[in-house]
UniProtKB/TrEMBL annotation:
The keyword Transcription regulation does not apply. It comes from the Eukaryota. This is FAD-dependent oxidoreductase 2 FAD-binding domain-containing protein. One of its GO terms (molecular function) is oxidoreductase activity. SUPFAM superfamilies: FAD/NAD(P)-binding domain (SSF51905). Keywords: Flavoprotein, Oxidoreductase. Residues 7-111 form the FAD-dependent oxidoreductase 2 FAD-binding domain. InterPro entries: FAD-dep_OxRdtase_2_FAD-bd, FAD/NAD-bd_sf. Gene3D superfamilies: FAD/NAD(P)-binding domain (3.50.50.60). It comes from Cladophialophora psammophila CBS 110553.
């Protein structure tokens, strides 16, 4: 790797890092440009690492794959008002776009009523 050149160096192979790498490579492919990405991971070889390894991928969506507004109220309640409301508002806007991306990439969603 020493001396090699990359378009992107991603630190961490969790969801954030993996999707960042995928996104860059998809953009390069769409633009018919070569793209070289390296993902650097400090975890054990051959094992999934970080929080992404443990998630049950419970996404708290409504039936239309929007972030359930009750989730924001829940955050308010469990954090006793200490959570970042701007962050939640941003998530509310970004979740439908993210869900569209995941569905386009073949991710299957199971809706459970709880
Ligand atoms: C038990 C559990 C249950 C969860 N359940 C849910 C759920 O139901 N629904 C939900 O939406 N979210 C859930 N989450 C949260 C979700 O898993 C995380 O928000 C998400 O996985 C974070 O992804 P990430 O890529 O940002 O971080 P991570 O997956 O933690 O990835 C970071 C990576 O960076 C690596 N790294 C760190 N430092 C370095 C370094 N210096 N050099 C190289 N590599 C480094 C780490 O080893 C790791 O692999 C859960 C989390 C846990 C722990």
């Amino acid at each position: 790797m020493s001396g090699d050149k990359y378009d992107l160096i991603v630190v961490g192979s969790g969801f954030a890092g993996s999707v960042t790498a995928l996104s860059l490579l998809e953009t390069c492919k769409a633009q018919k440009k070569p793209g070289r990405v390296v993902i650097v991971e400090s975890g054990k070889d051959g094992e999934r690492c970080g929080a992404s390894r443990w998630t049950s991928a419970y996404l708290r969506l409504d039936k239309d794959n929007n972030l359930d507004p009750a989730r924001i109220d829940e955050m308010d309640r469990v954090s006793q008002g200490l959570h970042n409301r701007d962050y939640c508002a941003k998530m509310y806007v970004e979740v439908p776009k993210t869900m569209a991306y995941l569905l386009e990439h073949g991710v299957k969603i199971n809706h459970h009523v709880s």
